[in-house]
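Morning!

This is the sequence you dropped in the shared folder:
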Amino acid sequence: MKYFSLLFLVCVPVFLLSNNIQINNVSLTGQNTTDDYYMIEFDLSWENSWRTSTMESNWDAAWVFVKFTPKNHHDWHHAALHYVDGFNDGHTAPPGAIVQTYINTPALTSEGVGVMIYRDSDGIGDVNWNNIQLRWDYGTDGIADDQVVEISVFAIEMVYVPQGAFYVGDGGSGYGQFEAGNTGQPFLIDSENAIILGGIGPSQLSNHDNILISNGGDDFDYLFLRNLPAAFPKGYDAFYCMKYEASQQQYADFLTHLTIGQRSSRDEDGEGNFGITTGSHFAITEYTWRAMGNMGWPDIATYLDWSGLRPMTELEYEKACRGPLEPIPDEYAWGNTSVMPTAFISLENAGTANEMISGATGFSVGYGNFTTTPYRCGIFAASAINKTRQETGSSYWGIMELTGNCRELALSVGNSATRDCQGLHGDGEISPNGEATSDLYSDWAPANGSGVGWRVYIVSKREFMAYNTSVRSQDYGIRGVRSAQ
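The structure's back. Tokens below.
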């Protein structure tokens, strides 16, 4: 904890929230009692950043948001960041960076939920930006000029996936892979327009007649047709995706900022315990750098609501993996079919921040060891010698471990409970009993997990897209997205 003597007392915990992303030197400055705002100042850094205008034409970014609570109340709420048009919002960006404010639409207010911070020009390497300032409209949040509060600043590494066409399905014939009608060929997503699901026409998104999908499969096939509405996020429009699965430290920070009543719904229940310990007002983990497993759909939905993100759809998942490239049959997220026949069993510095794969030269990424615990976020890239997509486990866009480490939960097109999703985002506020709010369970998927399946192996394999994900599993991780604006 750090304490600052200002017009009111501010307590600012500093967190390491993802793989090497850090927020430091948080303070409040520039209070304006006429317009009831403060500037929240901090330093931000992370490793292996990039922006390119060739090939992928994308960049990585930090999703930054703020929580506050009246002093000693431990009743944390989401801070309202000032918004005008997304770019001229009274925030201060350091040289070389852009600060873009995001609001939720349709919006009840014009206040920002968080900001994306990213490079303003091409470059590659570590970033270390000092004296970033975000305008916090504390009056909008019901805070008086002289009230004593605590604040916390959070950051999550993201990757920008540009607008553009892409394929779903890879020409394989089993496990409900997508195809164009009954042609067996991949289906091109070239807009966000409504799509006919099922049938045999080449302009219809079908699923090999629902072959080999577990738990009853999709509710469409060659005979029975459904409609996928235009509002359902299909991946054609640009979005940001978490670069890594959420870490155990990220989830511990989330638990720390809940009330005891909220936390009772989100604490691990001992199933596949990964070392998070909770007290009256804190949660700590021994393995801060490892991916967070043992999640169920309600845990994931609540975390995404709390952080201002949303779940990805299974169409967005395939774009996040392969980008605009022609599909390769049975490919993994790193763009080929090379994979270790068994999970890694030999680690260097196991259980530490420097956990690495032994004998990494020329290895194929594989898909992690789901029988024990997840690996640390970014382990494949850290272990790689040649830094190829195959060795690092990188998707086309630079998103890590989409077919590795934990399983990726996504919203299915084959279930009526998720097909009407309009891509709403969390607003940072969860219910008093520690759940995502009802409007998001209605838009995303109900708390029982209907319509939430998972991907982990071959990019286009849909075997488990009708699986029950409401029950916690040590295999399930957290990864969210945010529609670009």
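Headline: Confidence is low (pLDDT under 50) at residues 1-18, 367-371.

More detail when I'm at my desk.
O.
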